[in-house]
Design brief:
This protein has helices spanning 15-28, 32-55, 81-104, 108-121, 129-137, 140-161, 163-179, and strands at 2-6, 9-13, 60-66, 69-74. It is of the alpha+beta class and 180 residues long. The mean pLDDT is 82.
């Protein structure tokens, strides 16, 4: 892991982040527009979280780049539920706004990638914003049932279109639930 400080914030870059980037470049490297759009959308997503955090008076303790993406770790102290809701929703809101603007000006690839990043992050999985939002308001049992009811049909639909992508989605969902 690479670790350094930037403006009093710990920056941690784990091996898994480089592994996922390598895998992504391997799959889509010939299409530099898709790679650039994906990186832009992910960075803007996290910038939305960071902006909301700062506007609400919270500073990040760390920014972690790991196989699942980028994660902001707030400084010590409890963030009240309403502020957590705003912070968690801010990333997806940025993606959905970017998708709307991109579509309006004809940047269709950026629109599609941004829409995908925003909607995927709303899935009710522990590792994603949607799962964290649900954890704020629903008991664990209801959250698990909702996650299963959402992800299983998505895996089935993905399998009908592309069996490898369904396996990837199912593996990601299982890892998100089991490892978080």
């Amino acid at each position: 892991m690479l670790r350094f400080r930037l403006g009093g914030v710990s920056i941690r870059i784990y091996f898994g982040f480089f592994a996922m980037l390598t895998f992504y470049f391997y799959l889509y490297g010939r299409d530099s527009g898709a790679v650039g759009a994906a990186l832009t959308c992910c960075l803007l997503h996290e910038t939305g979280h960071l902006a909301a955090m700062l506007l609400l008076g919270f500073r990040p303790k760390a920014v972690c780049f790991y196989a699942g993406g980028i994660k902001l770790v707030p400084k010590s102290g409890v963030v009240p539920r309403p502020q957590q809701t705003v912070i968690l929703a801010a990333g997806c809101t940025v993606n959905l706004l970017l998708a709307a603007v991109s579509g309006t000006v004809g940047l269709h690839e950026l629109m599609c990638v941004s829409l995908a990043v925003g909607l995927i992050n709303l899935l009710p999985l522990k590792a994603l914003d949607g799962g964290r939002l649900m954890a704020l308001y629903l008991p664990e049992k209801a959250r698990v049932v909702t996650a299963a009811a959402t992800v299983l049909p998505l895996c089935a639909a993905a399998f009908a279109v592309s069996p490898p992508s369904a396996l990837f989605l199912a593996a990601f969902a299982a890892a998100a639930e089991l490892l978080m």
